[in-house]
Amino acid sequence: MKGMLIKDFRLLKNQGKTLVLMLLVIAVFMNLMTDVGPSFIVGYITIIFSMFTVSTISYDEFDNCYLFLMTLPVTRKEYVNEKYLFTLLSIIFAWCVGLVLGTVLLVIQPSAKIDAVEWIETCLGYVFTAWIFVSILLPLRLKFESEKARYANLIVIAGVIIAAFLAASAIDYLPGEIVGTGKQWFSGLSSAGILGMFAGITAAVVIISYLCSQHIMAKKEF
What's the total number of domains in the chain? Predict the structure, then answer.
């Protein structure tokens, strides 16, 4: 697995530095020319860069590279483990870059009121968001080839949007007591409590995604 990590990190070094530079320029431009806040910049860099980790699978598929990789001392399980570990490390790297830039933009704002704890908690939420996003994409990318994966991604995104819309609409049909109790409970949570709940949801999504990826890779034919 160490060799796989070195391969992906070298790919990240060659291809990712251009992406990071582009994201930094776009992020600064968006902050200066629009009304988006520094926290959005952190999320933008973290989530967009995390998508690059999924694209490394395309390089593994190119020119029957899978067949070569499987002749090395790398099992299918280790391959999946490496992709999830590489994804985590890449998300942390992108988040750190975004956090530094976002903090600088926040500090130089004329009327900035900085609460360090609230700022870190807000930015941490983007790590979980990126993890959820990539956890959905990884099994789809392992299951389908590059072209089919694009359509699968669109279908999944559309499904999530429709599900969210139906869930929001269903709230109107619930008894007022239940809705009121739920709103009261949620508003009573501290920021740390909300972050902890988000972390639990993220962990559940990642575990399900990992198990699906292991199953897909075990059945995959090259």
Answer: 1
For residues 122 and 117, what is the distance between their CA atoms, to the nearest angstrom? 9
Range of the domain at 200: 2-219
Residue predicted with more confidence, 192 or 110: 192
Whole-angstrom distance, CA of residue 150 vs CA of residue 144? 9
Distance CA 168, CA 161 (A): 11
What's the pTM?
A: 0.79
Question: What Rg do the C-alpha atoms of the chain give, in angstroms?
Answer: 20
CA distance 220 to 59: 17
Let me know how long the chain is.
Answer: 222
* pLDDT 10s digits, 138-160: 888 888 776 666 666 667 667 76
Burial 146-163 (b: 16+ CB within 10 A, else e): eeebeebbeeeeeeeeee
